[in-house]
Amino acid sequence: MAEDILIPLVIFGAIFAIFYVFISARNKERMALIEKGINAKDFLVQRKVSIYGILKWALLLVGVGLGIFIGSLLETYTAMPEEATYFACALFFGGAGLAVAFIVQKNAPEEKA
After folding, report:
1. Under a CB-based contact definition with an 8 Å cutoff, are residues 81 and 71 in contact?
2. CA distance 37 to 30
């Protein structure tokens, strides 16, 4: 009975501790940099969003979805086991989606900064 309450408390405590350590370490690092004279606006560096990152995620998710669909068809119309069929097809088509994203990015013209 006590274990049922203890497990969520330990999980919550661990998550809280991780966030606390992360935030306090980041604060100490920033304070040290400010003491050295570095401008605080340098912390707000904006990353440029690459269209190829979005394309990679899109093709990965499309590939996994297609793999689950093909796995469903194979599981229904063949004697293949259900778990292996879904898992193998999702991984295969997800990898194929990443390969297509790599080929598209490799053959595309360079982005200008």
Report:
1. no
2. 11
Span 25-80, pLDDT tens digits: 988 988 888 888 877 666 666 667 677 888 999 999 999 999 999 999 999 999 98
Among 49, 63, 56, 68, smallest CA distance to 101 is for 56
3-state secondary structure of 79: coil
Query: DSSP E strands: which ranges in 45-100?
Result: none
Return the half-sphere exposure (C-beta side, CA atoms, 13 A cut-off) of residue 64: 7
**Coil, strand or helix at 22:** helix
d(C-alpha 22, C-alpha 95), whole Å: 33
Q: What is the DSSP secondary structure assignment for residue 108, as one 8-state letter?
A: S
Which residues does 67 contact at the CB level (< 8 Å), separation at least 6?
86, 89, 90, 91, 92, 93, 94
Alpha-carbon distance of 30 to 43, in angstroms, equals: 8
